[in-house]
Amino acid sequence: MKIVVIGTRGIPNIQGGVETHCEELYPRLAAMGCDVTLIRRSCYVTDDNRISEYKGVKIIDVYAPRRKSTEAFIHTTLALIKARKLKPDIVHIHAIGPALCTPLAKLMRLKVVSTNHGPDYDRQKWGRMAKAALRKGERFQAKYSNHIIAISHVIVDILKRRHNRFNNVSIIYNGVNTPVKSTQTDYIDSLGLEKGKYVMTMGRIVPEKRFDWLIEAFQRARFNGYKLVIVGDSDHNDMYSTQLKKMAHDTENVVLTGFIKGEKLNQIMTNAALFVLPSTHEGLPISLLEAMSYNLDVLVSDIPANRLPELDKKDFFTVDSISGLTRSLSRKMKNPKRDRMYDLSNYNWDTIAQQTLEVYKKVLE
Question: Looking at the whole model, is its pTM more than 0.85?
Answer without folding.
Answer: yes
